[in-house]
Amino acid sequence: MAEISLPSDAFWGTSKRAITTTDNGHIYITASRFNGVTYYVALYRSTDGGSTWTLIKDQISSSGSVSLPYAVHSYGNSVYVGCTSSSGYVNIGKYDGDTGIWTQLLTNSSLITDVSSIDILVYGQQIYFACASGSGTGIRCRVLYSDNGGGTWTTYAPSVNMAGAPNIARGSDGWVYVAYLQYGNSTTADPLVYCAKRDQSTGTWSVTKTDIDYGGVNHFTVGVPSITVSSDNKVVIVATSDQDSSTGSTVPKITISTDHASTWSVPVEIIASQTWSNSIAVPLASDNAGNIYMLLQSPLNTTSNPNGINGKCVVYKYDFNTWTEFLTLQETSTTTYIYSVFGAMEREVKLSRLSILYVKYAASGQTRNMIYNYFMFSFSKIKRWNGSAWVSDVKAVRVWNGSAWVASKPKRWDGSNNVTVK
């Protein structure tokens, strides 16, 4: 595991999907880049595991503020960025990592206006851009999607007002899901969590409502839902709820569907033994072994630090039986703090690794340093059939040495070198 500082001109806001890895192992981040005058959404790349970074594309959006919403996702070696600008229009661009060519698919498009809280997902020729659109009681969740690589676009708007904060996921069977929040009000109405879904065989959309109940005393400052799909197509939504007004903490709740989001399990509290930060989505990821991963942020909530700026990030792994604390990022320095409210995580495990972002602040609370954290998942040994059972055996890998097949132990990347799996 390595902790690496990112480019000094990159400032990062609240995007939960600001990092992605391509099939060739390159890591990309989106950020707000300050050019000395104003901020633009920019794309950076690292080809060496995060040690060095190159600015790939600047000014993907027109000028705006450091808090411009954006998201990034990759397919193959191509990277797609969705963002907006101070004008609230849609900008979507594609960078081909093989050719080095940038293509602007949409520039300040008015297909959707007054855009905020963005997510983007790409698979093959399909591009999905989800956002909140509008303001006040007229705000809606909207999905802009293309089935032909951006040649033409279609807009879908679930019939729920006062809704936004979308998060997109795709199953291995091609179904696409968008979880979003219907906002409540400060006195009587609880927020509700919905899931829009697209049947890949028919292309039709429909919506179901989950039973996640926010409750609590402050109905506005609660986390928005996050969604992922396991490798066996279980649809999972997690949202923080039941805010404690005295500490500002929340409890994550999970609901699962095994029938393409037609019905949902009774929501249950998870990891309730610790105090968690509120108001921000809980990023989720999945791997190809049926596990999901969740990034939570834990404030300290001390008298001198009631907002929990000095906290930690924790990644939990869930095999649909047990939650395991997989990784803890705790700042021990007395001069810098982890601002884990800005934690982000890519949506899937690629090349046996999962990348996350979190932000450190100087003790004064004025300097925003973006930190990239990279870690490897444990290597899963190859199995062979011994006649009665599957057994782990790295010797199952063989190579041709010029005259015979010989056992060859596989290697893994430890962050700096390829090392033999023992």
Structural commentary:
This protein is mainly beta. It has two domains: 2-383, 6 Propeller (Neuraminidase); 384-422, no CATH class. The protein contains no helices and 35 strands. Strands 2, 3, 4, 5 and 6 form a five-stranded antiparallel beta sheet that branches. A four-stranded antiparallel beta sheet has the order 1-29-28-27, with no helix packed on it. It has a four-stranded antiparallel beta sheet with strand order 7-8-9-10, with no helix packed on it. The chain is globular and about 55 Å long. 44% of the residues are buried. Mean pLDDT is 76; it is low at 216-221, 300-309, 365-383 and 392-397.
Q: Runs with pLDDT <50, length 5+? A: 216-221, 300-309, 365-383, 392-397
Total discrete domains: 2
Distance between the termini: 19 Å
Kindly provide the radius of gyration, computed on alpha-carbon positions and rounded to a whole number of angstroms. Answer: 22 Å
Overall mean pLDDT = 76
**Beta-strand proportion:** over 45%
Major sheet size, sense and barrel closure: 5 strands, antiparallel
CATH class of the largest domain: Mainly Beta
Number of helical regions: 0
At the fold tier of CATH, the topology name of the largest domain is Neuraminidase
* Category by helix and strand content: mainly beta
Q: In total, how many beta strands?
A: 35
CATH architecture of the largest domain: 6 Propeller
- Tell me, what's the shape? globular
